[in-house]
Design a protein that fits this description.
8 helices, about 55% helix, single chain, mainly alpha
Length: about 140
């Protein structure tokens, strides 16, 4: 937490949220990622390239990811992501259901959430997979 050096209340709140998130599938802790990306946001853009997110879809992610240095960290950000018409276009009710399933770790329902997200996606499969790996799955732990 000290390494992150929060500059304001928003960053302090981000750090508080990040402490409860699980590691990504490659073992990266969201808090560590936040510190790296805060210190060098180009690392986030490099991560997008490594995940083959199409360049034309980067602006879609920027509006959701950049306020928290490329590391969405709370359920509200998750809801807003899946409600974005350029991502999945979920209604507020649908997004809240996703939030509850993920937040309460209803593991039996998670495959259905993933299927629905990918079926309804308005972005590329690579972008949706990136969102799943970096914004959804990290909130399951």
């Amino acid at each position: 937490m000290r390494n992150a050096k929060p500059q304001d209340m928003r960053e302090a709140a981000d750090l508080s949220s990040l402490m409860r998130l699980m590691a990504t599938k490659d073992g990266d802790l969201p808090l560590d990622k936040y510190v790296r990306f805060k210190n060098n946001i180009q690392l986030w853009y490099k991560e997008l390239e490594e995940h083959h997110v199409p360049k034309e879809e980067v602006p879609i992610l920027e509006k959701h990811y950049l306020p928290s240095y490329g590391v969405p960290n709370n359920q509200e950000q998750l809801m807003i992501l899946v409600m974005d018409k350029d991502i999945a276009g979920f209604s507020e009710l649908e997004a809240n259901k996703v939030r509850k399933i993920i937040g309460k770790k209803k593991m039996g329902e998670i495959p259905n959430v993933k299927k629905k997200l990918f079926d309804r996606r308005a972005c590329s499969e690579e972008t949706m997979q990136y969102i799943w790996d970096t914004a959804v799955s990290v909130q399951m732990g």
